[in-house]
Structure formats: C-alpha cells, structure tokens
Amino acid sequence: MELKEYFNIIRKRILLIIIVTLSCTVLSAVISYFVIKPVYKADIAVIIGNNDKVADSTKPNYNDVMMYQKLVQTYSEFVKKRVIAEDVIKELNLDITADELINMISATPKGTTEFLNISVSSTNKDQVAEIANQVAKSLKKVSTEIKNQDNVQLVDGASAPQKPDSPKPLLNIAVAFFVGLMLSIGVAFLLEYLDNTVKDEEELTKLLGIPVIGVIPTIEE
Q1: Per residue, what are the HEC states of 189-212?
Q2: Domain of life, per the record (predicted)?
Q3: CB 192 within 8 A of CB 168
Q4: Which of 31, 95, 132, 204 has CA atoms 20 to 30 A from the CA of 112?
Q5: What is the pTM of this model?
C-alpha cells in the first residue's frame, strides 16, 4: 500500500482512533488516581563490618574489606528472615504477620561497598519510615545475638516519604496513551483489511485493470 493510502485509512477511521486512545488514557488515569492505593517507600543504609577494627589499623586490610563485602551479601538475605520480622513486630506492636512484613522489605548491596540499603514499602505513609528504622535496629540486635559479633553499623535514619513511590500516574497515563494509539491504529487497519467492498473508481481500476468509462449516480427519490 502506498503512503497516501495509509493516511487515507487513518483519516477514515480517525473517530475510532480518538475514542480508543482517549478511553485507554482516561481508564489509566482513573485507575492510577482512584483505584490503586499509593505505596510509600523509606530507605535506610547500614554498614556491614566492624568499623573499630578498621579505624585501629594504620593500613587498610584488604582481606578484611573483601570479607565485609561478602558479609553484605549474607546480611541482605538475613534481613528478610522471620526472626527479624518478628522482632520488628514486637518492638513496634504492629498488627501484621511476619510474612506480610517480609514482603514489605527489600535489601540491596550498594555495588562493591560495605553499604547495605534496606527499603520498606507500605501503604501507611506515617509508619513506613519507623518500620525501616526498626528493621535496621532489629538486624543489628538479632545478628549480634546469633553471631556474637556486632557487624551492623547504623548510619542515617530513614526519613518519612513526601510522595508515593507507586503508582506513577503520569507515567501510566503516557504509556496508556501510546498503547491506546497503537491499538486503535492496528484495529483501523484490520477493519480496512477485512472490508472487501469497492470504495471508488480508482480502487475499481486497480482491481479490474481496466479504466472506468462511466459512473451511475445515486438518485434520491
């Protein structure tokens, strides 16, 4: 098909394209603003390692640094254990189960450093930072009791989030607009492909390979 024919199809089905695109966009906006509950996230970073030992050394011990980096990986798994969640629930008197709290927690090592970033996501804006701070404290407390060594150093406390982490309404609306536009254009071309009627003299000439010598007009009574 020629480029001109593509534009003609889009122009002929422009109403369908507009309706489908706007419907997807409006639906996404309604769901993002009024249906999905906003989720807030608070982050806290801790250092995994014995800072006193490093401070007392005149030269950094490479083996110790490598050991602490491996410990970060271990503690990133430790932070999501039931014993940590149960201690957090006990300290804050939370009305949730340990499994529910574990699903709210994520831990990510920061590259090859000794930092471990702990994130807590919750629909409770006023409580999420408090939970994040307590998770770090419980990790320090429980790990010390189990390993008989304090390898968790608290740095800065988590701050209360100012805006939701998800959903992102503007991003959702933009994606829905693009998807709706592509979907509506696809439907328009599909309908055109399924329509096997002859629209005008030019199309009839292409189909039959002979010129049109006359046209019978429609006369209204």
Answers
A1: HHHHHHCCCCCCHHHHHHHHCCCC
A2: Bacteria
A3: no
A4: 132
A5: 0.74
